[in-house]
Structures are given as structure tokens and as C-alpha cells.
Description:
Largest sheet: 7 strands, parallel
Oligomer: single chain
Amino acid sequence: MGQRILGRTGLRVSEIGTEHLKRVGRERVASIVKEALANGVNYIDLVWSLPTLLESVADGMDGQREKVHLTVHLGSGHQDGKYMRTRKPDQCKKYFEGALSDLHTDYADIVNIHYVKDMQVWKLVKESGVVDLAVRLKESGRSRAVGISTHDTEVVKLAVDTGVIDVVTFQVNMASRNLPGRNEALKMCADNGVGVVAMKPFAGGKLLQHRKKVKIAKCQTGGITVDVRIPATVTPIKCLSYILSQPGVCTAIPGVSNLDELRSVLAYPKATQEEKDYSQPLKMLF
């Protein structure tokens, strides 16, 4: 598994990471994490702070915490066993500390400001003190870096301008190729040492629905709705190859729900150049 430096954080992250894992049984989560780590994956985005999920990840790491870069989301919480979102700093800190406890660790590699959908939400997390809280967690050693996840190119640019955001998690996939401002935002990250984590590499699985005409939503492209028929030539490997060729991208984080899905992306490092060549499906798609 290849590795890249995650911007100015200096962390060496695997080109393929993983995220999501929601609605997956405890034993399956642990087995996915174990196999991922055994194959060189060292980046896990923990978008959900559900205790049972985090405890399952801890089971999968099984004493290998120092080999894994964990992203814990600030603002992702839970109530009555279900996900909830909060923008209150005291609640954010409570859920963050709880997540570290469930993971059996005393720090996160990245504390990620959770789901900043657009500029309105950015204003909210800034004015409420969530951004300041993330900075304090980094300064206190509870995190190594500050990140933000967003669907909006303008939020990406503003986050870079602040100088306090080290990592941006953003949709990068074939379907977002023509998103206005996307390439400019990615280049801005690269030029300023902000690491880019590419989420939704398969546009929520839509890019793998071969020979079907699908509607790819704004939340899967980053801002535009796309209606397209998916050619059979689109593969997980070609999708990942495209993403990892984009400016600033350090790692791609497909969501996986079973070992077969994990193995389909773990095939990437051993793929041939022909298998990685995404030029034909890209032309057929858009």
C-alpha cells in the first residue's frame, strides 16, 4: 500500500483508507479493521461516534493503535443509541472525549469539525466556538491536527484561508469532475499544505451501478446533480486511480460494509497501469 504525506501534518497516510462502517455488526467491523490494517491501510475516518461502533474499531485495532491514524468528528454525537449532530462546544467536547474512551486511546490524530455543509454552517461552527475548541484540543495534545469535512468548495477555500485547518475531507470522484471551483479548491489546499481526504470515491456507490441510468445527488458530487448511465468499464480501481491523480489528494476513504467490498479496494496497489487507466470511462461518463 502506497503512502502519502497528509499536508503539513507530516502524518504518513495510506493511499486507501476507510470510513462509515455504520449499520455493520460488531464482529464484522472488527474483522474489516483487522484485514484493512493487515494490508497496509492506516487511515480510518470515524464519522459516527456511536459507542458500539467505536468499541468494535478498538477490537479490530487490537493493540495496534500506534499504527493507525484515527479521525474523530467534533459534532458527531449520539442519543438513545442513535446518531445526532450538535454544534454546542460543551456537547462536542463531551462526545469527543467519550469517543476517545470507547477507542481506548487518549488522542485523535485528527479532530474533524463535522459536516460543515455550507457557508451558513461554517458561520455557525465559527461563532459558536466549535472551531476554537478544535484548535484547543490540538494545542493540548488531544489531537495532532484539525480537520473539517464539507460538501462546499467555498467552505474548503475559507477553511484554508483561516490557517488553522490542517486537513479537508471533501467529495472527489468522477461525478464531481465538472463541479465549479473544485479544482481551484483542491489546488489551493495543495499550495497551502492542507491535506485532502477524498470521501465518496464511488459517489455513494452510484458509479458502480453498471449499465443503469442513475441520479447522482449533490451530496455525492459536492454541489451538482448528475443524471448519467454508468458504463461497465467503471471499476473501483479506476475510480481510485482517478481520485489519487487529483491535486492535493492524500488518501481516498471508501465506505465498506463487508470484506468483499474491502478486498475490491485493496486490489488497487497491485493493479496494472491498464487496470488503473480511467481515461475511457471518464470520457463515456461526462
